[in-house]
Here is the input.
Amino acid sequence: MRKVLIVSPRFPPINTPDLHRVRMSLPYYRKFGWEPTVLCATPETSDGVLDEALERTVPEGIRVERVRAWPEAACRRIGFGHFNYRCMLPLYRRGSDLLAQERYEAVFFSTTAFPTFVLGPRWRRKYGCRIVYDFQDPWRAGESKIYDRSTAPGGMLKYKLSTALAMWLEPVAMRGADHVITVSGRYVEALRSAYAWLGPEQFTVMPFGAPTSDFELLARDPVPQRVFDRGDGLVHFVSIGRGGPDMFPVLDRFFAVVAQLRAADAAWNRVRFHFVGTNYSPAAITYKVVAPLADARGVADLVDEQPGRIPYLESLQVLKESHGVLLVGSIFPDYTPSKLFSCALAGRPVLAMLHAGSLASGLAPRFGNLRLATFDSAPQEAGFSDSLREGLGWLHALREERNLAQNGPLDEYSAEAMTRAQCRIFEAPVHAEAPCPA
Here is the structure.
C-alpha cells in the first residue's frame, strides 16, 4: 500500500475549521490504496479550541505524529507568536525524518497554516515525493483586502507583515506544486494568473465533503448543547461560524429586513437569532462582531452572539435542535462555506444568504430544505432584501418541521467521494519543477 504524509498542523483534539477535510477523509484512504500518516502539532502547543470529543471521529489505528510547536510565550517575547510560524521548523524536522526513513509517494498539505507550504519544494527535491496543496482560503493570490485598522487580525501592523511574508513565501511554495486543490474556481483563476507555469490540469475544485458519518454518530449518541433552551417558548434560529468583515454587508441587510418584519408583526419578538463562533481570535481577546450590526438596525434584543467556538459535535447538535438555520455568505463570489453540507444535513429549514456567483449557490438547489437568497454584485440590491423577506417568512413557517430532507443523494459530495478524488490526485505523475521568476 502506498503512503501519503498529511501535513495538518491542527488536528483533534484541537478543533479548527481547516482540519475537517483530513478528518473526514481518514476512514477512506486505505480503501483507495493509501496508508495515511498525519503530521501535526501537540494539542498544548497548537491553537484553536480543545475539543476532546472530536477524537471520537478519528478512526482507530491511524498513525499520528505529533511535534511540539515552539512555545507561544517565548516566541512573543521576540516579536511573533502566531501558530502558523511556531510550528514550521518542528514540522519540518519530523517530516524530514519520516521521509528519509520511509517511502512516501505523496505529501498532502491540508491547512490554512499556509507558511508550512514552503516545506513542500524542499521535500520534493530531496525525497522525490509528489506535493499537493489544499487552498481552503486565499493566501496571497486572490486575497481580498477586507480589513481595516479595527478588524485586521492581530492589528494592522501584524496583518501587513503577514501579507508581506505571503508575497514572498507563496511563490516559493508554488514552485514545488504538483497539484492544487481549492474550494473555489476563482482561487484557481487567481493562482494561475500569478503562476503561469501551473497548467489547468494541476488544479481541482473540491468542496468539503458531506459529514454524514458525524450526524450518524450524533444519532447514536447525542451530545448536550448549551446555546439555547428549545423548551423556553421562543423560536431559535442559529448561525454557526465566523462573522468576518466580508459578511458585514450581508448581515446589515439581514438585520434591516428583520427590523421591518418585527415592525409589521409582533410574532417576531419571540424569535432569537443565535450567532455562534463568530470570532476566531483567542478567547482572551474575543469580542462580538455581529451584535453591533444588529444594534445599528434596532434588533439587538433579538440577537444572541457567542463569539467563541464551541465543540464541533455540539455545533452539529445545535443545528439539529434549532427551529431553523442561517447560512451567512460573503460579498465575494469565491467564498464557499465549508459548513454548507452540515447545515443541510441537520434536517432543519436553512436560509442561505450567498453571492449568486459562489459555488455554494450552484449546489444549493440539491437541498429541499434550503431556501436561497442571493445578490449579483452587492447585498444592497433591492431583490436581495425581497428574497430575504420571503426566506425569513418561509423559515418561520417551517419552524416546527422536523427532519427535512435534501432533494436527492449526495453521493458525489460524500466524504468518501472526496477522498477518492484526493487519492487519484496522489497517484498522478510528478511535474517538472518550474523556475520561480524574480
Remarks:
- The chain has a mean pLDDT of 91.
